[in-house]
Amino acid sequence: MKILVLPGDGIGPEITEATLAVLDRATAIHGLALEWQTDVIGLHALRKEGTTLPARVMGAARAADGVILGPLSTNEYPTRDQGGFNPSAELRTKLDLYANVRPAKSRLGVGLTGKPVDLLIYRENTEGFYADRNMHAGGADFMVTEDTAIAIRRVTAKCCERIARRAFEAAASRRGKVTAVHKANVFRISDGLFLREVRRVAREFPAIDLEEVIVDAMAALLLRDPMRFDVIVAENMYGDILSDEASELSGGLGLGGSINAGDSHCIAQAQHGSAPDLVGRNRANPSSLILSSAMLLEWLARRHSDTVLATAAKHIEAAVDRTLADPQQRTPDLGGGLGTREFALAVASALG
Ligand code: NAD
Fold first, then answer.
1. Does the beta carbon of 102 sit less than 6 angstroms from any atom of ligand 1?
2. How many C-beta atoms lie closer than 10 Å to residue 202's C-beta?
3. What does the longest C-alpha to C-alpha distance in the chain come to?
4. Any idea which residues carry the catalytic annotation?
5. Cα distances (angstroms) measured from residue 286 to each of 256, 270, 340
6. Model pTM above 0.70
7. Which of 170, 180, 208, 224 is the most buried (most CB within 10 A)?
8. What is the pLDDT of residues 189-201, one digit of tens each?
9. If you write DSSP's letter for every residue of 62-129 in order, what string do you get?
């Protein structure tokens, strides 16, 4: 299987190198038939090719069996007419990667508030309040006068239905509960449509409990009682914000794996950004991208009914957990003394 590797900006190249060190070891141990192909996107590509996302890369992503994508310094990109395309948004919409799956698990024993965390967020990925992905032409974040700006959110029954379906399917093999996050008290029509579709899907899964929580209360309840939540389904913006909160709550932003998955493509992508403050210092925690890559292997395993890939995915996650269990073997964001490279070597050797 061909895996396209796009290291991205900021700490992207460092955490990608660390991730590949772990994947190379897993490939050797399990005899996986994985081939890496690396290409350049982001600010490096902008300098050399005048665009943050060369057309060649989009074609390679479409042709690959899976993609490993590093974080991107999108805040530093110029406008689209100057070559500043957000590769995450382009890949998510063009490859129809409608489900952003983000687990939060207290891998250090307990989470930030001393309570365990074990939940899974299904965030809608292709519309919502994201101005760069919800219009057929033009952006949805614009100015009417120099003092009046408007952003438009798109919500469709199709996108709500499919993300809800994936969430209920996931809950069936977990603790059997889905929490739908909304703000239908204010957005009666658009979040009302989201809830209508979630409830419609829920009727097909009578064994799964459905709970509905307003997004602001959700931010508080996550802190108060994280184990109340099993699978959470949310529109794009709510899911993005809550997943950072859940990840930090579970022990740190550098710990949360994530995939962007559709019906025929999948991209492993860390939950966090490009951490400009850590670039070139060998201090970034690569756990998020390593765990994201394990999630990609698991997605490929299901798609191709490949039990060896499934075993390798579990093995990598267990090796990350075994490494993190020792406080001496953690990166500085978690109070440890290991560098990015040294942490990756520790995980690779924990694989056996
Ligand atoms: P960030 O996630 O990069 O950093 C937030 C904080 O978390 C910083 O203190 C950083 O040092 C820390 N952090 C993040 N990842 C870490 C890791 N792996 N190990 C240790 N510490 C880590 O968010 P930001 O500072 O708001 O954004 C920086 C850039 O990233 C911006 O250009 C933003 O647009 C972009 N961004 C990209 C993505 C993506 O590519 N998926 C997501 C979010 C932000």
1. no
2. 19
3. 62
4. 130, 183, 216, 240, 244
5. 10, 9, 6
6. yes
7. 180
8. 999 999 999 999 9
9. HHSSEEEE----GGG---GGGT---HHHHHHHHTT--EEEEEEE-TTSS-TTSS--EEEEEEE-SSBT
